[in-house]
Design a protein that fits this description.
With 70 residues, the protein is an all-alpha fold. It has one domain. Helices cover 64% and strands 0% of the residues. Helix 1 runs antiparallel to helix 2. The model has no long low-confidence stretch (mean pLDDT 80).
Length: 70
Amino acid sequence: MKPKTWNTLWISVLILTLISFIFLFKEDKLNPQLFGIPYIFWIGFLVTCLIVAATFIASKVFPYQETKKS
């Protein structure tokens, strides 16, 4: 189960990153605003939160273990 979850997470982070830089982060795009905050700021914050959450989950389900030093 861990390798499947791990692969799903890293692929979703890769896709989210590509979609963000290709479609979401456009130059000079300020609208729509959310509570007076420009689009680029709140969408960047949302993408960052999603990537941090995925990284946290991935750290818990990482399928490989470090070699033990004796």
